[in-house]
Amino acid sequence: xxxxxxxxxxxxxxxxxxxxxxxxERKTRMGIAIGAFLLAGLLWALYWFFIxxxxxxxxxAYVAGSMVVVNAxxxxxxxxxLAEENQVVKAGDVLVKLSPTDAQVALAQxxxxxxxxxxxxxxxxxxxxxxxxxxxxxxxAVKTAQDAVNRRAALVKTGAVSREEYxxxxxxxxxxxxxxxxxxxxxKTAGAQVAGTTVQxxxxxxxxKAAFRSAYINNKRLAVLAPTDGVxxxxxxxxxxxxxxxxxxxxxxxxxQLWVEANFKETQLENLRVGQPVELKSDVFGSSVKFxxxxxxxxxxxxxxxxxxxxQNATGNxxxxxxxxxxxxxxxxxxxxxxxxxxxxxxxxxxxxxxxxGAVLGTVAGSENLSNLATHVYAQDEDEANQxxxxxxxxxxx
Length: 398
Description:
The protein is an alpha+beta fold. The protein has helices at residues 4-50, 101-158, 163-194, 203-220, 333-338, 379-395, and strands spanning 55-71, 76-81, 88-89, 94-98, 223-225, 230-235, 242-243, 248-265, 277-282, 286-298, 324-331, 346-352. Strand 9 (277-282) and strand 10 form a beta hairpin. Helix 2 runs antiparallel to helix 4 (203-220). The radius of gyration is 46 Å and the shape is rod-shaped.
């Protein structure tokens, strides 16, 4: 039979065993927690060493693009608007038409002035020919008069020719010489007006041609053309509006030539180089669509440095603020076609900085491929103007 003393001893032993079991469990859990923590730290260290330290990421990134402002190139009244906002246009498409009345009147006047100038200059060239013939005639008259004087000079001494006849021959020679001098001056005057020129390149013709080209191009500019491919972003013009030269009519954004302006902190710039690959995500498509980009250029200054009112850090109380530098990231045109972006959209940019051989400053990669840096839609106007001017000149030459 168990005594109370024996029961107390058994109870103490059982409690001691339970405490020991709990202690072992606590140590096991602590060991597992410490191990998991160490493993997580090791994995994080490995991730940082092999991956994270070669990447710089920012959410301060936005889609940018070339926004071409289409201005009126001449004065006129808006007759028709042929493009609306969000409409896709091609380079050379007519966007706005202006009333042609005044420009056509000016063109008709310039055409008439060019035709008249051509006829006048041709008459000037004809005058030179006439003066040349008159010069030859005057030279012949002088020679004839001189021969008559020479013949009578020997005969007047013998009395075969009277003194009166000899004096008359001298007078005829004097008149011929005077006429020769007058004709020579007329020939010089006429020749000076056309010296070194032809009818086609005479200064008076060139001036009339310039006035005609100006009127012709001004008439052509009544049709406002799209200078580049893109999408109409904003239309400011209205039908019937009287506009003057230089007034902005609408804007065009080259939708297939967008880029991203990623604003990295200055502490993130140490390993950034031109040409490094970039992975980008947009809010509109989410993480399911990843754009591939390339660092095209790194800004030479912070945004605040180029602001209208730059910060005056040398005055008053000063607080250090980490600045940001804009980094331009080139996008792939094919990806933009598959997943169109809009100017101003926010992006997340992650730059792979493993390859650090590229330039830091002074190089903008890929800009030579941007077709919106040049336009040829206006060159045709000048060619047509020259052709029309030549037609008018040729039609008035006889």
